[in-house]
């Protein structure tokens, strides 16, 4: 069963960003499944590590899109990304020690964070790209 279900309202209208968001949802669901099926902590840890890598890459790409589109709320948005990473790091470390309880709490937190962040903050980037006609040159992610 999924903990986070994709819905079209999560699309912000920039294909590359939407694809990365869907991949992140998929990874969060994989962590959830690994926990539910009582797989070893080690495997859950591997998926969480992958998730951290993907999230870091996604934030870098999204911030590049905002830069190219001269998005006025970039500093505030970047700060939210940094805050999430700062929150996750100690939690990740604790997942290693005492796996599943921390990981379960972490998942609930991630679910809320991503739903809110995409619908409120990332959606605003999409609107900016559309309003300013920068979608074509601003929104595609060429390389990291
Ligand atoms: Fe974001
Ligand atoms: Fe995002």
Q: Strand content of the residues, in percent?
A: under 5%
Gyration radius over CA: 16 Å
What is the helix fraction of residues, given as a range? over 70%
Shape: elongated
CATH homologous superfamily title = Hemerythrin-like
Secondary-structure-based class equals mainly alpha
At the first level of CATH, the class is Mainly Alpha
Molecules bound to protein: fe (ii) ion
Largest sheet: none
| Number of structural units classed as domains | 1
Instruction: Please identify, by name, the CATH architecture.
Output: Up-down Bundle
- Cα(first) to Cα(last) distance is 33 Å
Number of helices: 5
The chain-level mean pLDDT equals 89
Q: Give me the strand/helix succession.
A: HHHHH
CATH topology: Four Helix Bundle (Hemerythrin (Met), subunit A)
Give an overview of the whole structure.
The chain is mainly alpha-helical. It has a single domain, classed as Four Helix Bundle (Hemerythrin (Met), subunit A). The longest helix has 33 residues. Helix 1 packs antiparallel against helix 2. Bound molecules: fe (ii) ion (2 copies).
């Amino acid at each position: 069963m999924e903990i986070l279900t994709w819905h079209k309202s999560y699309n912000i209208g920039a294909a590359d960003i939407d694809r990365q968001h869907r991949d992140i949802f998929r990874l969060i669901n994989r962590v959830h499944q690994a926990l539910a099926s009582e797989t070893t902590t080690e495997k859950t840890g591997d998926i969480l590590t992958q998730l951290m890598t993907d999230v870091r890459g996604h934030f870098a790409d999204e911030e590049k899109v905002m830069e190219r589109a001269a998005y006025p709320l970039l500093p505030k948005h970047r700060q939210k990304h940094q805050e999430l990473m700062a929150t996750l790091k100690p939690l990740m470390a604790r997942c290693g020690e005492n796996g599943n309880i921390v990981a379960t709490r972490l998942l609930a937190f991630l679910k809320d964070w991503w739903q809110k962040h995409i619908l409120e903050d990332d959606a605003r980037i999409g609107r900016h790209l559309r309003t300013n006609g920068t979608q074509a040159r601003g929104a595609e992610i060429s390389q990291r």
